[in-house]
Amino acid sequence: MTDDPLLLRLGQELDYARRMLDAMGDDLCSDPAVVMRHETALQTVDIAGQMLGHIATVIRSSRREEAVELIGMGDLKARLTRRSLG
After folding, report:
1. What is the Cα 38 distance to its own chain's centre?
2. Long-range residue pairs from 62-70, CB within 8 A, at least 24 positions apart, any chain
3. In angstroms, how far is the first alpha carbon of the chain from the final one?
4. Reduced to 3 states, what is the DSSP secondary structure of residue 73?
C-alpha cells in the first residue's frame, strides 16, 4: 500500500462512489419491472462499480504495475496497459 495520503484518500473516495453505485443498483434491482426495462443499463452500472473498485486498488498500491496485472477485467487491464494514451 502506498504511503501517499492523497492517493489513499482518492482510493477511499473511489470505493465510496462504488458503494453508492452498488446501493443504487441493489435498489433498482429490487423492482422486477425496472430490471426488465433497464437490464443493460443496470449491468453497465455494475461494470462501472467493478472498474472503480479495481482503479481504487491500483491507486492505493505501492506496486501499481503489479496491481494492474491482478485485475480480472480483461478490457480494463488492456486499456490500462496499452502503449498509447490516445
Report:
1. 20
2. 62/1, 62/2, 62/3
3. 29
4. coil
- Kindly report the number of other CB atoms within 10 A of residue 71's CB atom: 20
Q: What is the pTM of this model?
A: 0.89
pLDDT tens-digit profile of 4-25?
A: 999 999 999 999 999 999 999 9
CA 82 to chain centroid: 18
Amino acid at 23: A
Burial of residue 86, with CB atoms counted within 10 A of its CB: 0-12 exposed, 13-18 middle, 19 or more buried = exposed
Q: Which of 52, 61, 71 is nearest to 80 (CA)?
A: 71
Of 56, 65, 75, 78, give the one whose Cα is nearest residue 9.
56
What distance in Å separates the CA atoms of residue 7 and residue 28, rounded to the nearest whole number?
32
